[in-house]
Write the structure tokens for this entry.
Amino acid sequence: MASTYPVHLVLVGPPGAGKGTQAAQLESQFGLKQISSGDLFRENLKNQTELGELARTYIDRGELVPDNVTIAMVEDRIQRPDCAKGVIFDGFPRTLEQASALDEMLALQDSEIQLAPALVVSDDVIIDRMTGRRVCRNCGAVYHMCYNPPKAEGVCDICGGELYQRSDDLPETVRNRLFVYYKQTSPLIGYYYAKGLLVRVNADQPIGAVSREMVAAVRTVIDK
Ligand code: AP5
């Protein structure tokens, strides 16, 4: 049965699976707010905050930022009015501790996670996607040099900002991020499966085909 708003979704999947790409499309289609913990950390890095400096040491090694810091950051962010209709969580939770903290935060708002789409994709594809990724320094829009190139090389289609390669997208860091994913984040698949919330999406297809599967899955919980 379709839910009434607010609706909360958790996108589960390895680094580079396409969570951010899909979350941005779901945001515009369903009017939910995309909250990416990685983007929140990068915003702090850009603004040279204390949190950003702390996060940098973990991000550059491909390690997870400690749970207490990450949970407090997300808890603070979801209090803002733009989250009233619901949130697409992208990159959070990433540990079982974060997942149960998220359940508790939402319970305090008389809410819960309605669906956890899991993007399934092979390691080879992930490495190819991350090493070809380029991000707008100004608005954060995500491109890929081959699969989703900007119209003009190095320039964002949306705002004209400069595109750059994330420091954690270098091959050595990418391998460690995958290792960390399998060790610390993949148990979330069992966590959401046990709650009956997991739906697997084949992310090893072109962006449009993945989006169609995503939208069909989300329509089972949002009547729109
Ligand atoms: P974060 O920014 O969350 O990185 P991630 O989860 O590793 O995910 P990515 O942003 O790399 O990938 P994505 O799945 O969003 O893929 P995208 O859509 O960009 O985290 C970075 C770091 O911050 C972490 O390592 C950690 O240190 C810290 N952190 C963040 N959250 C944390 C947390 N909760 N706890 C602790 N620490 C945390 O797509 C990738 C590329 O592929 C793009 O170029 C895109 O254009 C392309 N692409 C996408 N879909 C397709 C497709 N279907 N076909 C072809 N190309 C595609």
In short: The longest strand covers residues 7-11.
